Known about the structure:
Layout: H1 2-46, H2 51-55, H3 63-78, E1 97-104, E2 112-116, E3 121-125, E4 129-138, E5 148-157
Antiparallel strand pairs: 1-4, 2-3, 4-5
Amino acid sequence: MYKLLFVIVMMTVWLAAHALQTDQELAVQTLFRGKHAVNRAAHAAAQQLDAAELAEGRLIIDESAASAQAARYLQANLQLDGAGNPLPGSFLKERVEVLAFEVVNGDRAFPYTYRSDLYDYDVTLHKPGVVLIVRLAYPRAFQVMEPIEWEIKGTAELTGY
């Protein structure tokens, strides 16, 4: 009888350890997918030049176009609706929140260092660019781990000049 009890206890421990490992692997995959999505969104936003300013020879990123493009890329890559909520079938379960979106235009002296004490982030830009910080929560597959949230940071500069 004690052997049967021992086997049941060991199976429970083994299943809990397996669930924890699976949750950890899925969390890392979620973080990587989120980081790639933020990087793509920042890069797409940084390429949104103001055509009128460009005609005058100035490299100025159109802030409204950049914001809209970043939102489109986040929606497409993370399977979100317009409000940042996950669509049915998305790997996420909670709303994705854009914490910071800043366009650093050519009217600043470069190299320019962007600092955010609130999100513990600093980056030096050598060209006009975009800084994007997003909060993403991991939807745990099992209830073995504590909830995980990340503040994913991405920066992109203009390319091609």
